[in-house]
Structure formats: C-alpha cells, structure tokens
Amino acid sequence: MDMKGYNRPDLLSLRGVALEISALTGARLKIDDPDNFIWDNQQLPELMVQIDNFESCPLYCLAKIEGLQVSESEPIWTHKLNDSGMRSVNNIADVTNLIMLDYGQPLHAFNASVVKDEEITVRLALDGETLQTLDGKSRQLQNTDLLITDKENILGIAGVMGGKDSEITDQTTTILLEAAIFDPILIRKTTTRLGLQSEASKRFQHGLTKKRLLQALNDAIKMYQKLGGKLTAISIVGNIQDIHTTINLSQNHVNSLMGIQLSEGRIESLLGQLRFELEKGNFGEWRVKIPYFRLDIEQEEDLIEEIVRMYGYQNIPSRSLPGEIPQPVDQSQFKLRDLIKFSLVEEGLTEVQTYSFFSTKVLSTLGWNKKLDDLVKIANPMSAETTYLRTNGWSNLLEVVDNNLKYGFPDIAIFELGKTYQQDEDLGIQERYELSVALVNNTDNPISELSQIIKALFVKLNLNISFTPSETPENEGDFFHPHRYIKLEFKGKQIGEIFEIHPRVLDQLGISKRVAVMDLELENLA
Known about the structure:
The chain is of the alpha+beta class. The protein has helices spanning 14-25, 75-83, 91-103, 184-194, 199-206, 210-226, 251-258, 264-273, 300-311, 332-346, 360-365, 394-406, 446-460, 503-509; strands at 48-51, 59-66, 107-111, 119-124, 130-132, 138-140, 146-149, 154-157, 161-162, 175-181, 230-238, 246-250, 277-280, 285-289, 350-351, 376-377, 388-389, 412-424, 428-440, 466-470, 480-490, 493-501, 516-521. The chain has 14 helices and 23 strands.
C-alpha cells in the first residue's frame, strides 16, 4: 500500500491496514473485534494507580503478570519484528512491540521489583527533574513532560521512553504491564524537545482508541500466559468507552463536490465498505455513525473524501470549466527577480532582508528626521522604529554593514531586493521594487569592484546598460561621495546609480572603511 502521511492513525497498525484492504478489495476480514476480555470474569485485586489529570491521561491500565522468565524470542517473533523494521530485545519486550504493530497500541513493561509498593502515579514533571532513559542519556525535564512514577522515583516519560532503572533484566520474573492513552499534544511537545521520536510516540501523537487499547492489553496478557506468566492483578482507571461521533451527510453536497451524480444506494454502499453506519433521514440525507477507529473523520467533507477515494478519482470524468479562461498572469518580473538573486549569489554576494522601515538611527544619521513630511508614515505603527517606510534600500544596508564590521568581518558584499515607498502628489503612495547592493572590500576604491559585479549581472540579464561616471547630483551631495558616482542608464533613461557613501555619513555611523553602494529600480528594466 502507498501510505502517505499519518493523518490516518488507524493505518499505523496491521489491523487497521487489514480493514482498509478489506474495504478496497472486498476480501473477507479474518480478524475478530472482541468486546470480552480475559479479566472480565476473574476476581483480581487492583493495583494502586493515581492519575493527577485525566485530560493528560484519560485511560490508564496496569496489569501484574508473574511467573515469567526472560529469554530470547522464538524465531517467528524475531522475523516478524525484523520484517517490520524493529529489532528483537527479549521475549518480554518483544510482546509489547508485536502487540503495538498488530493493534497500533503501544505497551510498556516495567520491572515490578523496582516499582516501590507496586504503586503508579501519572503526573506532570517538575521543572529541574531529571531521568536517565533507556538509551542511557540523562534527560532534563520540564513541566509539560508527562511522567510515570512510583512513590520515590520516576519510572519513565509517558508515551516516549522508559527509565533505565525500571527496564526488564535477565532476573525479571514479574512485570507491571502498562497500556494507556496520553494527551497527543503533550507527547508531541516532549518528543520534539528531546528529539526522542519512536514508533510508540508516533502512535501516541496521532491518537489512540480505548477499544483497541483493551483488545491490545487482552492479547498481550494471553501472549505472556503462553510464556508461563499468570495475571494476578489489574487496574483500569478512567472511562473505557470511546466517543462515537455522528455527522450529517447530504447527497446533494456529495454530488456537488464530486461533480457527478451518485445514487443513494451507491453512497451507502461505498461508506458501508469502510464500516460507516448510515441512518436514513429525509430524502437524500443520512446521519452517519463514525467507526471508533477513524479518528480522522470530523466533518461532512471528510466523509465525502472517503466516498471519492472509494469511487476512484480516476473514474471521475474531466470537464472544461465554464466561462472564459483567464489570461495568464505576467510572470516576467518574478522571473527577473529570481534571476537577479541567483546571479548575485553566484558572484559571491549574500542576500539580506531588512525591515521595510527606516530606523531612528538611519533617520538621525541622514538628517531625515528634520523633513519627515517627505516620507510615508504608517497610521498605526507598532513602535517608534516602525513609523516611516523606507524610500530606498541602500540606507538599511548601511546598518547591516556597520553590524558586520563590528563583528570583525573585513569584506562585506550584500544585496537586498525589496519594496520601497514614495509619495506622489498625483498618484499617491507608490510601491517599487529596488535592488540595493553594498560592498566593502578593504580597499580605497570599492566602487571599482562593485561596478564589475554589476556589469557581470547585466551581461547575464542580457541588458545593454551604460555606465556613465559623473559628479554626484547636488541633491545627493549630503549622502554620496562628491566625485565617486556612476549613472546607470537604459534606453536613454537613468534607472539607477553606483556611488560611495559620503565620509561624513560613515563617520556618524562609526564606519572607518569606504562603502560602495548601488540602487536600481527594477520596473525600469522592462
């Protein structure tokens, strides 16, 4: 079978897979689904089990099995585990893994001799507690980790891994067999934080059913009995009844989403194959009872998805959409931006992303805090640092250069491709994509190397751009070096500029090296 994803927790078991194959092929299912269990007619003593929070552990079962002897598993067990990608440990541990593969319900066997007074508590960890797990590593615990403990010690991290001190040894003759359901969110948080993903934790994370738990526990006890063990005590704490969900289903909705016409009988047949129970309502409507093992079915659309896949996606005829076919969106600008990025990275530059705002440091350094009316102001800024949108990209790159120089990087070559914002009396606020590049190469003439990089870029873009050295325009004289300025022209129109930052500006920023910068308006390259 092609098993994509794990939104189907029932498929993380051989029984779940067998049910699916039976539904898809019509083959008779040979496995049973018992409701009677080995402990039902026995007057067995109860073990002491305390659950601090039933939301984190809605059901906990603990069975005491005596008279066992640890040995190697029989070859057929070893082969089954190996074929499933698991290794054989010993006959006691192998029972829990075989049952997990069969039912999808993880079990854990504690060495009863190390459990103080054979009493179990399920609780959240206290910050600072530690546990040495079965893999021999010491784990630092947090208050979101669910624990299994006795009166004195931590026995294991619930649903994740047992403790080293409570593992089965060659001398073990009595075990406390745990079968439980834990909060999937807590298990996921712990496994992610500790990096302890396992076959068991995977199943806890995706949801378990109480009926399968009891069936799994029942079969595990039977397997231990065949090994010479005897069930001498058992406790079942929590509600053992699964919640049976019912969902309304409409024939009109089914046919509307599928785009074909299915009869009532066909819909009932397809869902019936998957063991959904349908109660007829008004014409073309049903009340559908969800099987206890299908935890992924939550709404009507989920039922319709089941109908579609059982009907066969390949059997739904393709049809042309009504109406006019929309014209393709012009992707030339997107392609241009991607090509520019790839080309500059190939030249050895690093892409950075800065905020679309001017920082107060930039505004102060460049003197723009005295003429804020020329800038685009945010109506409801999150802070003083996000009040004014940037009108160019190079000023933000100066801050990046400054930070990198302070961290000891002698050569810096960075670029950013992002939006800038300008005020226009006639058109209002205009957004433009600009390419900004900043270069520090530890020389007195970084503008020369930057020019070569930009020329190489335009060659790759197959654009004929002219580079014209000139004096810096008067309106830029406060920010740019007066004699190191190059105009970039395309089709007779200036589209950008390469320049060095004025020494005065660099001094105010505390930058002692020369910085060459380029600004380019991408819209003008069309």
